[in-house]
Amino acid sequence: MFYQGFLLFCSLLLLVNFAQAEDDYLRVKVADPYLEMQTGAGSGYPVYYVVERGDWVQILKRKTEWFKVRTERGMEGWVRREQMEQTLTPAGTLLELPDVAEGDFVRRRWEMGISTGDFSGATIISAWSGYGFTRNLSVELSASHVLGSYSSSIMGNIALLAHPFPEWRFSPYFSLGTGVIKTTPKTSLVQTRDRINNNTHVGVGLRVYLAKRFIMRLDYKNLVIFSSQDDNQEINVWQIGFAAFY
Predict the structure, then answer these.
(1) Which of 53, 117, 160, 231 has a Cα at 20 to 30 A from 110?
(2) 17 occurs within a structural domain
(3) Which residues are within 8 A (CB) of 9 and not within 5 positions of it... i.e. 6 or more apart?
(4) 46: which DSSP letter?
(5) Which of the residues in the chain have pLDDT under 50?
(6) C-alpha closest to that of 59 among 19, 32, 14, 90
C-alpha cells in the first residue's frame, strides 16, 4: 500500500511541476530608468534591447553573474547582476539574489556522491549518480558493496526520488527503487554458491547544502530482497554521505 501511495505522490508532483512550469519563473519589475538586455552572458556582447521602468520581466536562468530574462513582449536577453538587484519583486521589495553556488543548488541537475553506513549489521559502501529531470523528481543509479562477517554482496539499484521542497537548505526527499543483489558466502565448511536476487526499496532522506557545490546526505531505506523460496528478507539500511552537484 505504501508503494502505491508513493507512486501516486510522485505522479502528483510531476503533474504540478508541468502545470506550474511557467509560474516557476520569478517576475520582477524594472525600477531603474531602464534595464539593458544583451545578446549573451558577458560584457563583450552588445545591448540589443532596453526594458523601460515599470515593465515586468521573467528570470529564466542564471549563468554566474548574468541572468537570462524574458519581457512581456517575448524578448529574451541577458542582464548583469548589478541591474537585477535593483529590480522589485511582486511584493515591492528589492530582489535578493543568492550566491552562485547556493542558487545552483536549487537548480541542480546532476549529482554524484559516495556514502557509507549500516546494512543490518554489515558495513555498506555506496556510490551514486543522479539526474533531476524536474525540480521535484530525479532518477538515481547506485552501486554498493556490503561487507558482512559471513558474506559479501554487490548491489546495483535504480530509484525514483521525489523532492517536495527542493529550494530548502535542509531538503527532504522520498525514494522508491529496485535492483539486483549478488551475495557471496565466505564460509568454506559446506559447499555454497553465489546467490543473485532482485530487491526493491522505499526510503526517506535529507539533503543538506554545505557550501559551494557540496552537500551532505542522510538516507534510510527499507529494503526487501526477494528469494526463490518465498522467504523474503527485509533489511533496514542507514547511510551518510557527501556529494557534489552540477
Answers:
(1) 117
(2) no
(3) 162, 174
(4) P
(5) 1-2, 16, 18-22, 189
(6) 90
pLDDT of residue 136: 85
pTM exceeding the 0.70 threshold for the entire prediction: no
Cell of 155: 548491489
Which of 74, 97, 120 is at the close of a domain? 97
pLDDT tens string 64-102: 788 999 999 999 999 999 999 999 999 899 988 866 555
**Structural domains of the chain, count:** 2
CA distances (Å), origin 173, targets 190, 214, 216, 230: 44, 17, 13, 31
Residue 15 lies in a domain: no
Nearest to 201 by CA among 167, 231, 224, 218: 224
Q: Examine residue 168 and state whether it is found in any structural domain, yes or no.
A: yes
* Domain boundaries, position 44: 23-97
Cell of 176: 522508491
185 and 166 within one domain: yes
Q: Burial letters for 125-140: b for 16+ Cβ neighbours within 10 Å, e otherwise? A: bbebebebeebbbbeb
- Residue 45 exposure: Cα atoms within 13 Å on the Cβ side: 14
Domain end marker among 36, 63, 97: 97
